[in-house]
Design goal:
- By secondary structure, the protein is α/β, with parallel strands linked by helices.
- It has a domain of 111 residues.
- It has 13 helices and twelve strands.
- The protein has an eight-stranded mixed sheet with strand order 6-7-8-3-9-10-12-11, with helices on both faces. A four-stranded antiparallel sheet has the order 2-1-4-5, with helices on one face.
- Strand 11 and strand 12 form a beta hairpin.
- Helix 4 packs parallel to helix 7.
- The longest helix is centred in the middle third of the chain and has 18 residues.
- The chain is globular.
- The two termini are 29 Å apart.
- The C terminus is likely disordered.
């Protein structure tokens, strides 16, 4: 992709946390970029480093115990890592908005919804309280909350889960950010409300021409929303590609495992889900080789001994995989192609 199209560039980001048991290497050399108007989904099981990655970019890692040990994150050429709070506030909330995983604990229970949205505009845009309050009504209407002029005077406990998530979206859009980070935006919502939230995000992306970084472990959400996908495991991105690459031409055994563990309404109803056996590696002392070695059904001796390189898959520069099976001298594994054929649809 042309460099000029990239809004956010993250290169070799590493994050550690100091604990009584030692240093947890939560993020290990993560690199990705985001272009204007696209949705990049970052997927993986709990503990793989998804949320820590975006929190580091936003300057939300508590230090200590956390620390950024390497890498860079540039927004339109401006370095975000290592900024003081005052400097960071010139970007977060203005150029980058964030929807947190649990709006009930992210919103202030002692302030009205309208005041919390207005506060963002007053701090970052210098609006008067009257101007900001009026704009808060407009933002709630934009997120399809009915009777917005009445709702701005209510407190978070008076909102349902879906309405709270809409209020969070309204707050994050207050300053027209270039990028919206959505960290598990549909967690704990029923499927009907989940669908409405996803439709709202897609609509706002079109009207506001913003990019979205979507953090999730739900592949159905990814299939519906994403343009590109980064699959994370044990603090690393193990596969990156377009949404079609990830679902139809999966190249990393972990991606295949995630797909096999996902329910589908296509095919034999009696077919059992195939969970990934074992547990993620101990990130106090990450493995010398591939982090997925102990759980991988296709593992080779090389996988245990050496960290896999990032390989281009089938000559497609935008589809990359950290797996020795993609090496030109690796044995061909028919099961990889069969798995893609069996799981070629996600509805």
């Amino acid at each position: 992709m042309p460099v000029s199209d990239r809004i956010l560039e993250v290169n070799d980001l590493s994050v550690e946390f100091s604990t009584y048991g030692g240093n947890v290497k939560a993020v290990r050399g993560v690199s990705f970029s985001v272009i204007r108007g696209e949705t990049l989904a970052i997927v993986g099981e709990s503990g793989c480093g998804k949320s820590v990655t975006v929190q580091a970019i936003m300057g939300l890692i508590p230090m200590p115990p956390g620390r950024i040990t390497g890498g860079s994150a540039k927004l339109n050429g401006h370095e975000l890592l290592g900024l003081e709070a005052k400097e960071a506030n010139q970007f977060r909330g203005i150029q980058i908005g964030m929807i947190f995983q649990d709006p009930m604990t992210s919103l202030n229970p002692t302030m009205t919804i309208g005041d919390q949205i207005a506060e963002t505009l007053m701090v970052h845009r210098g609006k008067s309280h009257k101007e900001a309050s009026e704009q808060a009504v407009d933002l709630l209407e934009k997120t399809h909350i009915p009777e917005a002029r009445m709702r701005v005077k209510q407190y978070p406990f008076e909102f349902s889960g879906g309405m709270l998530q809409r209020a969070m979206i309204a707050q994050s859009l207050a300053c027209n950010p270039s990028i919206l980070i959505a960290d598990e935006p549909t967690t704990a919502l029923d499927v009907t409300i989940q669908s409405q939230i996803l439709e709202l995000m897609a609509e706002l992306q079109r009207t506001e021409n913003m990019s979205i970084i979507l953090i999730t472990h739900d592949l159905a959400v990814v299939a519906r929303m994403a343009d590109r996908v980064a699959v994370m495991y044990a603090g690393q991105i193990v596969e990156m590609g377009s949404v079609d690459d990830i679902f139809y031409e999966s190249s990393h055994p972990y991606t295949l495992g995630l797909k096999s563990a996902m329910p589908s309404n296509i095919g034999d109803r009696d077919k059992k889900l195939m969970p990934i056996a074992g547990s993620p590696p101990d990130l106090f002392s990450p493995p010398q080789g591939c982090g997925y070695f102990a759980r991988c059904p296709y593992a080779m001796h090389l996988c245990e001994e050496r960290q896999p390189e990032e390989f281009v898959v089938q000559g497609r520069q935008d589809h990359r995989s950290r797996c020795w099976l993609q090496h030109q001298d690796a044995p061909k594994v028919d099961a990889l192609h069969q798995n893609n054929a069996d799981r070629s649809h996600v509805d």
